[in-house]
Specification:
With about 425 residues, the chain is of the alpha/beta class. The protein is about 45% helix and about 15% strand. The chain starts with a strand and ends with a helix. Pfam families: Glyco_transf_4, Glycos_transf_1.
Length: about 425
């Protein structure tokens, strides 16, 4: 079966590192012939398994092409319908209008390139869109024109929650939400949000969590009197990394007898700002040290938990689909602390860490650090963290089931 997997950049950098776990299962399936179609391709790609190919048709546009499709967008019915929605929802403005036009042009351009790809390589059986964004709308347009048989899409967080977007605006989604053959959400909460916010038909949705490999060993706890806290995230406002800084300041001052270390992994636009904040706010606290390791390859992050004692994983995001970085830590037996946002509550609980309120104060986070890391039962929390991944978030089971579902959709009559 011919599968076109539409990504933002994978296998090119940056981001989408979690596809690295899933793609191996696609490569091993004897019934799937997978081609990766990234929208952006810069630099050298990451290695991919044998049996998976890459086509750069979606990433080959020129400035002249973009200008041409902007002109087409201005006179398209898609753009007109979006302007009507913006007017009725009272979201009309210069920014939202420009975003609508830009997205419309992207959809028109990528749909044409998908049609060209299908003419050259054969009709696409399933367009699997890793994000529920412009590429997936282009695939639906190509389907309507006869170049694609079926279109399925995942929906994570940034491509799902309008609150994560400027002016709380997600262009074009309502125009296309009924046309998918299947939308796979990560949790019940994500499914409900798609239904309530965009009117997605429930019969076309299915819950399919991401997964991570089970670590071959468990992370070691720190020696008595020491505490090592880790966080892994892109440094952007939605991750609220300043909350970690303030919470650790409170915790370290309240527990002067505990030698506390914080390690953050991940780059991003706020990397320098957060590091400077830590240098300012945590200066002079003799029992607290920190390090910012920047961006690391996905496998290096997994190895880090096995090579370095880690006692607690911290996430303070205001919006989260599920949190694969949390899963990776828990797979190695590291208890997790995270707010009750998105689908996090199906992963984190007080039995394997600490589930915080959706908008926790620095003091609430500091108190939770103490409960998880210092009170009796912390060894049980480590074992329970691993058991949660074994039971519900193993990549072996989740990706095998997901691929079976996608292939079944592709095999069904049109």
């Amino acid at each position: 079966m011919k599968i076109a997997m539409l990504t933002n950049a994978y296998p090119y950098y940056p981001g989408e590192q979690f596809i690295e776990d899933e793609i191996a299962f696609w490569a091993d399936d004897p019934f799937a012939s997978v081609t990766l179609l990234p929208a952006v391709a810069a630099g050298e790609p990451r290695s991919i398994p044998d049996g998976v190919s890459i086509d750069l048709c979606l990433a080959s546009g020129t400035r002249i092409d973009r200008f041409w499709f902007m002109l087409l967008a201005m006179f398209s019915s898609m753009f007109r319908h979006e302007l009507i929605y913006l007017w009725r929802s009272r979201k009309m403005g210069i920014y939202t209008t420009l975003r609508a036009m830009l997205h419309t042009s992207k959809v028109l351009e990528q749909a044409e390139r998908l049609e060209q790809y299908a003419k050259a390589s054969g009709k696409i059986d399933v367009a699997y869109c890793y994000w529920n964004e412009a590429q997936s709308y282009a695939a639906l347009l190509a389907k309507a024109r006869g170049s694609v048989r079926k279109v399925v899409s995942r929906a994570h967080g940034f491509d799902l929650y309008e609150t994560r977007r400027k002016h709380e605006y997600m262009p074009l989604k309502r125009q296309f939400i009924h046309a998918y053959d299947r939308i796979f959400t990560l949790s019940d909460e994500g499914k409900a949000y798609l239904e309530d916010t965009y009117g997605a038909p429930p019969e076309k949705m299915k819950i399919s969590p991401l997964g991570v490999p089970l670590a071959n060993a468990l992370s070691r706890p720190s020696p008595a009197g020491s505490l090592h806290v880790a966080s892994v995230s892109f440094c952007v406002p939605v991750k609220r990394l300043d909350r970690i800084v303030e919470a650790l300041s409170l915790f370290a001052r309240q527990h002067g007898q505990i030698k506390t270390t914080w390690t953050h992994i991940g780059g991003g636009p706020l990397f320098d700002e957060i590091r400077k904040l830590a240098e300012t706010r945590l200066a002079g606290i003799s029992n607290l040290s920190f390090e910012f390791l920047g961006e690391l390859p996905n496998q290096a992050v997994k190895t880090y938990y096995l090579d370095t004692p880690v006692d607690l994983f911290m996430n303070t995001s205001e919006s989260e689909g599920m949190g694969v970085s949390i899963m990776e830590a828990m797979s190695a037996g590291v208890p997790a602390l995270a707010p009750d946002v998105g689908g996090v509550s199906s992963l984190v609980s007080n039995e394997c860490g600490a589930l915080l309120s959706p908008c926790p104060s620095s003091q609430e986070i500091a108190d939770a650090i103490g409960r998880v890391a210092l009170e009796d039962g912390r060894n049980a929390l480590r074992m329970n963290a691993r058991k949660v991944i074994e039971a519900r978030f193993s990549s072996n089971r989740n990706y095998t089931d997901f691929i079976s579902n996608v292939l079944a959709i592709g095999s069904a009559p049109e």
